Amino acid sequence: MWSARLLDDDPDAILDAHRSYFAAGARVGISASYQVSFDASGDRARHLLRRSVELCAAARDEAVSADGVERWVAASVGPYGAMLADGSEYRGDYGVDVGHLRSWHARRLDVLCETDADVLAVETIPSLDEVGAIATELMGRGRPAWISVTAARGTLRSGESLAEAFRIAAAVPEVVAVGVNCTDPVEVAGAIGAARSVTSKPVVVYPNSGEQWDAGARTWTGRAGFPPVLVAEWIAAGAALVGGCCRVGPAEIESIVGACD
Fold first, then answer.
1. Residue 127: left (phi > 0), alpha (psi -120 to 50), or beta?
2. Which of the following CATH numbers is that of domain 2-207: 3.20.20.330, 3.60.10.10, 3.20.20.140, 3.30.420.10?
3. 0.90 exceeded by the pTM?
4. How do the domains of the chain map onto residue ranges?
């Protein structure tokens, strides 16, 4: 269950985290539903999925009441590999067919589509099969969503085409934006170019911090966050929404807000 276990164990911790990001200037909060699955939680997953959106919405409403600035709640729809907890969301080698992926995602989408989330954040998707499965399941639901993939060396983590992934996603009316997340910042510019080559829909980018994991020392190295010039380059290239994924905290979000201003 990873961070999603806090939905049960310590929901106030999640609420406080959302508050911190909104206070830092975030305009979109993403719910803690990334790793919630029926496989891990059974029917209790329905409650946890709903609670994840409720907590984010509560923090959003507090922030809006304080300053009147519009903010969104995005309900996280994580990949199949997040449930496996074996790192396969960074490879895409699940060993299951598209039909299985469709039915697995459909159960969570059924619940999240009934919440008050403003948009579905389909994120960290590593392969064309999973992009296609989710795109098909989103079709006809009438709920706005973005589909964000994870990339390495200019391709999906599976080694397949980024442009093809964005083409498949953008063909669905419910998909209001495409993009990339949970990847090294050096991958972002190429991903924006790939998206722009196949669709005029908005592009969302929220990479990891840019730090590197030193497995020997069991610690992160480098500096978290993105230089303002890099954020400016992404916006100039066509990014409509810029944020951060792993290891990007409120302080880094505050710097992104400053760069966007």
1. beta
2. 3.20.20.330
3. yes
4. 2-207
